[in-house]
Design a protein that fits this description.
globular; 36% helix; 3 helices; 4 strands
């Protein structure tokens, strides 16, 4: 079982690293921040704390964290517990309204950015905190690369 989990972790970690990011973070000015923890892994104060940390990092870039537009930065937390290990999966995605240019333009919802982290955990709260920081830092790095004129 443990070997299978390690194999899955390796595949999910290394395959995406060989491709360039197909996502674009150009000209993002505001998003709503949502942290989803349907498995109730974390307590409410922890979720609020993580949300505030993410919002502070976004605000430091000039990205507002409240909008009436459908632009949501979603952090989804999942965990599978067995008798011996806990495996966590954290997904950060930016979901937005988009317009598809076809013969007749179509309004749609698009994933503007997505990054995952999958890991085995001994201290779930601490490891999830580190994962969220890692994912948001990756988001920020790409945002800075794509928006140098907005950061001046």
């Amino acid at each position: 079982m443990k070997i299978l989990m390690i194999l899955i972790l390796c595949i999910l970690t290394y395959i995406p690293s060989f491709a360039m990011s197909p996502f674009s973070l150009e000209s993002i000015k505001s998003v709503n921040v949502k942290i989803l923890d349907k498995d109730k892994i974390l307590d409410e104060p922890s979720l609020k704390s993580f949300t505030q940390e993410v919002e502070q990092k976004l605000l430091s870039l000039g990205i507002r964290t409240s909008t009436k537009a459908f632009s949501n930065l979603i952090i989804k937390i999942q965990a599978i517990k067995t008798d011996t290990i806990t495996v966590c999966h954290i997904n950060l995605s930016l979901v937005e309204n988009a317009q598809l240019f076809r013969s007749i333009p179509v309004d749609a919802i698009a994933i503007g950015y997505m990054k995952d982290d999958l890991f085995e955990s001994d201290d779930t709260k601490q490891d999830i905190s580190q994962s969220i920081k890692f994912l948001i830092d990756e988001f920020i790095e790409q945002y800075k690369e794509e928006n140098p004129t907005l950061l001046k």
